[in-house]
Design a protein that fits this description.
Layout: H1 3-19, H2 21-24, H3 27-31, E1 48-53, H4 54-68, H5 72-87, E2 102-110, E3 113-121, H6 125-132, E4 138-142, E5 145-150, H7 159-169, E6 189-196, E7 199-200, E8 203-204, E9 206-216, E10 219-228, E11 241-243, E12 248-253, H8 257-268, E13 277-292, E14 295-308, H9 314-318, H10 321-327, E15 330-332, E16 335-338, E17 341-349, E18 352-356, E19 363-365, E20 370-376, E21 384-386, H11 389-396, H12 398-408, E22 410-419, E23 424-433, H13 439-449
Parallel strand pairs: 13-21
Antiparallel strand pairs: 1-2, 1-6, 2-3, 3-5, 4-5, 6-9, 7-8, 9-10, 10-23, 11-19, 12-13, 12-20, 13-14, 14-18, 15-16, 16-17, 17-18, 20-22, 22-23
Helix pairs in contact: 5-13, 12-13
Length: 454
């Protein structure tokens, strides 16, 4: 069995949390307390650790499907999905893993290489050993706990060395997981993460980071806290100005250099040097597709405000003839004409500018300490006007149609990442579903209809 097949098998096993127990587990099973002895073996100094609470996820899902909504349509879809997989010969390989307990995914450095691992609880040791026997996957078992190590690069450290490392991980119990703050049972949280810093721009400005995902009434929530590393508090830039929030709104600071480099590389072909973006603010209202003699033109319905690190003349960019020729547009004073469509251009300050469908953008001064704001409806992201056959083709793609259906059932998405002190930052978010829609049902429907699972 290859690493890829093992990962697919485990992924299908985790997906079974959402479907398999509907047929395989009784109410008595759910009421029993499953042991999580695997939590006692998480290594020290992990780069990140992710805990999936199988029991909490199963209970939330079962309550949503059977008691709250009594969703017969979803149950029929689940049964049909299982039948399809059986007909294709893709039945779940039983690896003896107890999916009704905690599963911990982690990363550690071994011989200078990042190695990913999974800690699981086992209900059948024989099946797990049989499943991984004579494979390229390193693993070890101790009583009812198993650890699996993957080397993404498939080179040093060797398989033998990783197997020995896996055995060493299970030699002695420890309490390192207490340092990572990822155990909050019975709080609605079913997915918790720890990482030693998060990428922010091109450097790590944060130390210990925890993010928790869960279910609360009609919404899915995200709550996170980050430790700001010493001497970095004053270096982290927050939003000073942004557009008044409309449609789907996204504002942020510290655009990664890779994005700036990509933009720079693309605009170089037109002899244009792009701005070094310090912050941006975007209102998105949808997409228009214009039929053209040379094909289709995509005109995003946006308001975009950008603050550059240095003074930047936006009129020099949009006034470049090579760019106008490539996109077949004309610049008339401060208006970009793309056939019958108009985009307005405005130099707000020497180092900030605006491009959008509104001639008079509303730019407000921020009084908080936000690094990032996402707010509004998701519908505009998948709202397409015109396009004829192209739009019809998109509707036929399962991933697109499933995403559109999900966005139509979400009332609002709100995410805020902000600095609250010199040493701490918070990430808070909610995905609020419509009154007649249940979060877990919608997510399962989305995964099935979008064909996101093997």
């Amino acid at each position: 069995m290859s690493i890829r097949k093992v990962l697919v098998s485990i992924t299908i096993g985790i997906f079974a949390l959402l479907i398999a127990w509907i047929l395989l587990f009784t109410a008595k099973t759910l009421l029993e307390s499953n042991k999580n002895n695997n939590l006692n073996y998480l290594p020290k100094n992990v780069n990140f650790a992710i805990r999936l609470d199988g029991r909490e996820l199963a209970e939330k899902t079962l309550f949503s499907i059977f008691i709250e909504s009594k969703d017969e349509t979803l149950l029929k879809m689940i049964l049909e999905r299982i039948e399809q997989q059986t007909e294709k010969g893709n039945e779940l390989q039983n690896l003896g893993i107890d999916y009704m307990s905690d599963i911990v995914y982690f990363q550690i450095n071994i011989k200078g290489a990042p190695i990913n691992g999974i800690l699981v609880n086992i209900n059948n040791v024989g099946l797990l050993k049989k499943g991984f026997k004579d494979t390229e996957v390193a693993f070890a078992v101790k009583k009812d706990v198993g650890v699996i190590l993957f080397n993404p690069k498939e080179n040093d450290p060797s398989h033998e060395f990783l197997t020995k490392t896996a055995e060493n991980i299970l030699k002695k119990e420890n309490a390192f997981i207490d340092q990572y703050d990822i155990i909050h049972p019975s709080s609605g949280t079913f997915f918790e993460t720890y990482s030693n810093g998060i990428p922010f721009g091109d450097k790590k400005d944060f130390g210990k980071t925890n993010i928790h995902f869960g279910l609360d009434d009609q919404s899915l929530f995200i709550d996170g806290k980050m430790k700001i590393l010493p001497n970095n508090s004053n270096k982290l830039k927050t939003l000073k100005n942004c557009l008044k929030q409309k449609g789907f709104h996204f504002s942020g600071t510290e655009v990664p250099t890779k994005l700036n480099d990509t933009l720079n590389s693309w605009l170089n072909q037109f002899g244009i040097t792009p701005p070094i973006i310090q912050s941006f603010s975007l209102n998105y209202f949808g997409t228009k597709i214009i039929n053209h003699s040379s094909g289709y033109f995509i005109v995003p319905q946006i308001e975009l405000y950008i603050e550059s690190k240095y003074p930047y003349d936006i009129y020099k960019l949009v006034g470049r003839e090579s760019l106008q020729s490539y996109f077949d547009f004309e610049l008339d004073s401060n208006i970009i004409h793309i056939q019958d469509e108009k985009l307005f251009v405005q130099q707000v300050t020497p180092s900030s500018f605006y491009i959008g469908i509104s001639p008079h953008p509303s730019i407000i001064t921020m009084t908080g300490n936000e690094f990032m704001i996402i707010n509004g409806s998701l519908k505009p992201l998948l709202e397409i006007e015109g396009g004829g056959l192209m739009t019809s083709f998109l509707e036929m793609i399962p991933q697109f149609s499933a995403s559109k259906a999900l966005s139509n059932h979400i009332d609002e998405l709100t995410i805020r990442f902000r600095k609250i002190s010199a040493k701490k930052a918070l990430l808070q978010g909610r995905i609020l579903f419509g009154e007649d829609y249940h979060p877990m049902n919608e997510l399962i429907t989305f995964m099935i209809n979008g064909e996101f699972m093997p």
